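Predict the assembly for these four chains.
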Amino acid sequence: MGRSSQQQASENRAKIVETASRMFRELGVENVSVSDVMAANGMTVGGFYKQFDSKDALVAEAFSLAFDQSLDAWDDVYQQADAKAENRASALVRQYLRNTAAKRRCPVLAFAPHVINGGADQASVEAYKAGTKDLFDKFISEMKGATGGHATPDAAERDSMVLFAAMVGARAIAQAIGNAPWVEAIEAAVNQAAKQQGHR
Amino acid sequence: MGRSSQQQASENRAKIVETASRMFRELGVENVSVSDVMAANGMTVGGFYKQFDSKDALVAEAFSLAFDQSLDAWDDVYQQADAKAENRASALVRQYLRNTAAKRRCPVLAFAPHVINGGADQASVEAYKAGTKDLFDKFISEMKGATGGHATPDAAERDSMVLFAAMVGARAIAQAIGNAPWVEAIEAAVNQAAKQQGHR
DNA sequence: TGTACATCAGTGAACGCGCGTTCACTGATGTAC
DNA sequence: TGTACATCAGTGAACGCGCGTTCACTGATGTAC
C-alpha cells in the first residue's frame, strides 16, 4: 500500500465527502467519527489529514454537498409535479414529509444540532445558513406561482412562509416522536394545507 | 465534609435535577457533563452516583421537569391573554417565538437531538414523547375555543395543527440561523397566521 | 525511452483530552442501648 | 439524656473508552535527466 495516483487520491477525496455527507445526515455530525467515515471507504484514519485540514473542514464540505443534493431533489419533485400537472406545493410537502429514509434526512434539521450547540466552525455555519436560505427561497419563489385566489400577493407570500415553517416543524416532530396517531394527524393537516394553498 | 443530613441530601438532589434541566435545555444533553452539573451546584462528581443510577436517569428526570415547566409557562401565557381579553393562539405563538432566552428553550427542540440520534435511554424517550404530546394537546385543545368562523370543526383543528407545526418549525429555523431578515419574515408570518386563526 | 531519485497518499500506532463511571476514604448524621 | 457505633452523602483521584489529531513509516507514483 504505497502512494496512490493523483487521480485515485482525488476520487477518494470526493468519496469521503459523499460518504461523510450521507453519514452526517443520517446519524448527526457528533455521532460520526473521522475513523468511521474513513472505514466506510475501506481506508484508515491517518490518510484523512492528507486531504483535509480537520474534521471541521470535512463538515463544511459535507454540508454544502447535502444542501446541493436537496436543492436538486426539490427540482426533481417540481419537474415530476409539472409532468403530472400537479400542484407543486402539495407535491413538495408530501415528498418532504414522506421521506423517512435516514440517508436523505433534511439537512436543515439533521445539521441543526451541530450548528446550534456551537460545535460548528465558521465555514460550516455559513454553509448551513446559505443552504437553508437557498431551500427557503426555492420554496417561496415556486409557491408564488400559485397566488391566484389570494387576497393580496403579500398574503400569499405569508401563507407560503407559514407552510414552509409547518413543513419543517412537522418533520422535526415526526423524526423525534416516530409513528403516533397525533403526529400523523399533524402531517395530514400540513399536507392538506399545502393542497389548499396551491389551489387558491 | 462528612455526611449530609437526609434533608440536605434531598434538597441537593432536587437542585441537581433543576440545574441539569436548565443546562440541558440551554446547551444540549451531549454538551453538559455530569461534572458540569455537579460543579454548577458547588459539588464534585463522585457524589452524583449516591443520588442517581446514571446520567441517563438524570436526563429522564430533567426532561420531565422541563416539560412540566413549559406546560406551566403556557398556562401563564393563557391566563395573561385572558386577563387582557387577548387571542390565546396569538399570545402563545408570539411568546413562543419571542422567547430567545437559552435557559427557557423549547424542550421539544432542545432535547430532539438526544432523542433522535439514539443517545437517550427508554425512560428519557418516553418522557420526551409524553411531554411533547402534552404540549401539543394543550395547544390544540385551547385553540378549539376559537373555531367560530371556520367551515367545520375538522378544518379548525387542522389549522391548529398546522399552526403548531409552523410555530415549532419557525423556532427551529430561528435558533439555527439567528437574526436574518428572511427568518424574521417567517416569524412575522406565523404570528400573523395565529392572529387570524383566533379571529376566524 | 530508461533510470535514479524525490514526492506524497495512505498506514496504523500513539498522543492528549474529556467523558461516564468506580472506588477507597472522610466525617457528620442517624440509631441502638 | 448520653454514649458508642453504624450508616452513608459527598470527596477527589483513578479507570477505561472513544474522540480528533500527529507521526514515523511504506512503497507506488511522478519527475528530472
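Chain A touches chain B through 46 residues (CB under 8 Å). DSSP finds ten helices and no strands in chain A.
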